[in-house]
Design goal:
42% of the residues lie in helices and 23% in strands. With 230 residues, the protein is α/β, with parallel strands linked by helices. The strands form 4 sheets. Strands 2-1-3-6-7 form a 5-stranded parallel beta sheet, with helices on both faces. A 4-stranded antiparallel beta sheet has the order 8-9-10-11, with helices on one face. The longest helix is centred in the middle third of the chain and has 25 residues.
Length: 230
């Protein structure tokens, strides 16, 4: 998919130069010359915004502030002839992700654009993965990453430990026999094996014994409150 870039710039020479260069590098570029015109832009379709500070009808930082009120993730690079440190601080604190001083080398701007797009894509992917999680009490399981967060800290688990924990949590409040656990987690059943007991002990060491209760003569239950007696 081709990344689209929005350029808010009123200098015709810069418009032409950037348009030719960025399109030759595989980007699509939409150009706006004023705050009035850019207010009609559909921001969600762009991967990066290039915003000039000084415009014919105002300042680009006002537009950045407006964008950030609605979209906190889109990459924004502020372009400016102002090299003063305080101006850079103001631009970044208002919401720009990067600040580049004019005149700039096109290859440097290109590198910064690509870096910001990569960062935004990574954040979006992490957020997408975070959306698919199971949260019960102190446990948070991000299934697509096979990651377990316990009391806000990640706990590393072996494959079978993770599968066993997930199976028990999904069946919270239900008592499972060893045969049921073996069949669902390991894929086989053998009445005399101590495999389940061994792995339950491993989970108890990592999370605390209260969550993994023994129901004598029956099997195991995951109890988020730890109310059942062993």
């Amino acid at each position: 998919m081709i990344d689209k870039i929005l350029l808010l710039e009123d200098d015709l020479q810069i418009q032409k130069g950037l348009s030719q260069y960025l399109e030759s590098e595989g980007f699509e570029l939409d150009i706006f010359e004023s705050l009035e015109s850019v207010n009609k832009a559909e921001i969600s379709k762009y991967s990066c915004l290039l915003i000039d500070w000084n415009l014919s009808d105002g300042v680009g930082i006002d537009y950045i502030r407006k964008v950030r009120e609605k979209n906190s993730k889109i990459a924004i690079i502020l372009l400016s002839a102002r090299s003063n440190v305080m101006d850079k601080i103001i631009g970044l604190e208002i919401g720009a992700d990067d600040y580049i001083v004019k005149p700039y080398e096109p290859r440097e701007l290109l590198a910064r654009i690509r870096a910001q797009i990569r960062k935004t894509q990574k954040l979006n992917e992490e957020e997408r993965l975070e959306d698919d999680f199971l949260c019960i009490g102190d446990f948070k399981i991000i299934e697509k990453q096979r990651k377990v967060i316990f009391k806000e800290s990640e706990v590393k688990l072996a494959k079978v430990e993770y599968d066993l924990l997930l199976f028990l949590i999904r069946g919270i409040g239900k008592v499972f026999s060893r045969d049921e656990i073996l069949s669902n987690v390991w894929g086989y059943s053998f009445p005399t094996t101590r495999t389940v007991d061994t792995h339950i002990q491993k989970l108890r060491k990592k999370f605390g014994s209260k969550y993994f209760q023994t129901m004598h003569g029956v099997g195991y239950i995951f109890d988020i409150e730890g109310n059942n007696d062993e």
